[in-house]
Amino acid sequence: NKQSKAYPLKSDDFFPYSDHPHAYWTGYFTSRPALKYYVRSRTALLAAAEKALVVAGNSSKTTTERAQEALAVAQHHDAVSGTAKQHVTNDYAERLSAATDDLEALLSESIAKLANTKGAAMPQYRLCRYLNESRCDQISAAASSKQVLPVVLYNSLGAERREVVKLAPLTTNLVVARAADKRALPMQIVGDVGFVEVDVPAMGFNTIFLDFSGDFSDEELKLTTITKHEAVRAKAATTLESAAMAVTFGENGQIARITNKVENITVTVSDQRFIAYNSSTGNSQLSKQPSGAYIFRPNGTLPLFPNVSLTVVSSGDVVVEAKQVWSDWVSYTVRLYKKSNFIETEARVGPIPFKDGTGKEIVARINTNIASNKIMYTDSQGLEMQRRERDHRDTWQWVKDEPIAGNYYPKNSAAYIGDGNRRLALVTDRSSGVASLADGSIEYMLHRRLQHDDYRGVGEPLNETEAIYATDNLVLASPAAAAKAQRTRALAINHPVQLLFGPRVTTVPQYTDTYTVQHTGLGSPLPTNVHLLTLTNKVVVPAGRHWPRGARGAERESRHVLLRLQHMYAKDEHPTLSAPATVDVASLLANVKVVKLTERSLSDNQDVGAVKRLKWRVEGDEAAAASTAATAPRDDTKVTLAPMQIRTFVAEIVDA
Q1: How far is 653 from 640, CA to CA, in rounded Å?
Q2: Residue of 38, 36, 67 whose CA lies nearest to 50
Q3: SS3 content of the chain, % helix, strand, coil (to 5)
Q4: Rounded to two decimals, what is the model's pTM?
């Protein structure tokens, strides 16, 4: 830097990486998908608990420290990557389970404090950790005792949202969903899962009730509709529709067409299926490299899914859906909510059969008529979208030794293909590998179970024995509309509404007369293109004093909070939402006053005014290198964010 040397500018990354011919490190993008989801969902729960703690001003003896430590350890490059031994992976999961206990207690106490504004006994709330398996003791107990169950929906995002929540098991049709004012709400039961659409305030909660008491009129009971899956008539196409979207299934039971009705955009689907790649055992003449926890090396495909059976729920007040059954261990549900502009898919994969001696890597693929011209985009850690060109590397000549594995890329949040007027985006609930192996095609890996180690240090095969449930969203729209829907859905999937189940009561007024049923922690709404990334209590230690032991915990809460604001859009990604956004932190939080606002470095280890960065010369840029200081500390509370910018602050607050 002192010599003012110029360096070439590299804008691509090093994916996909290989350390030898036929040895692409693209398997770990998907390895251990259950752990990947567990880490992401606990991260969302931690963010929700931290924000609720700030808003409630809670002083619980339980802390977030164990959760922070468990999630920090889970970021190790052999943890969330899925490349640890089985017993080590079990330990990661055990730590996350213990962290969940703490976060459940913290979130429950915070909600109870916010709800208990009338001096009553503190209510207790519980999570249902197995809702995706239709297991919830609180719902089952309320149904068997014919009582009313309060359900608190907590939204950690800084924007009001309308979500369809799933409640299960509902094994009786004698149940009514109610709002806080006792109004019966439309609820649709499919199988044993109830679907209810609810509005939830920004960084706050709303409360609904599952009424099993039998004390409801016939008119109220009619708002609970029971729908069942029905087999599709042989060789008949069928179409499911919402207000914004339509999906047509062909005679073979596969998706044949997807339509955005609002923008009048359609893609034709030539093939939609599940594929089982046969994992290489390393016995080929080209290479002894097998597939393993790190390495993805397919050796053809296995004929495991020759046909699909299709059942549909073609009408409903809340949702319509189709279920494809590809085998006794693979199914795929395509779901359209009546008022939503996306398609929800839910894949159940596993346990992957193992007794035939072959490793298997399970992929969902959709081939369309989108003229993608070899280009696919994937997100870079949920932020900017990175351009990927099939069979190409920007800065070196690629040898096409593995045409499948060598074209797989990491997808942390989203991937899309497009052709100028149309964009088909996939938004996912966990990281996995994704590829576009032909124009108009996009495929993503869901699960892996392998017979061999890949000689990269794990020392054992990746023997994943459980089934996984993966929920993704498909967005079809024009580029600008797709960008907005993709960003919005990514936030919603990665920060789901947290459902907390309260104490059973005999009537709705027994709860509503005692507890507050709705609350928001925001004093003013955030701009549409801004995400409240972090809001957590922070201990500020004066200069010359020691950090107090245990100070990271909520029991030593100070009147300082750590605040991060994120601009959600990249430059030129959207005609209006890519513009800079301004937030007045002074009015951001309800019922508090900001005394002082100090900008910090991104990692919060020093004031931004103390940050001194080196400026490096780029080839072709004649400007001399120099050391540059960051922006000086600000003396007001209005913060402007440029596209994709994240800014970090410590705010000193007092009660308003």
Answers
A1: 20
A2: 67
A3: 15, 35, 45
A4: 0.93
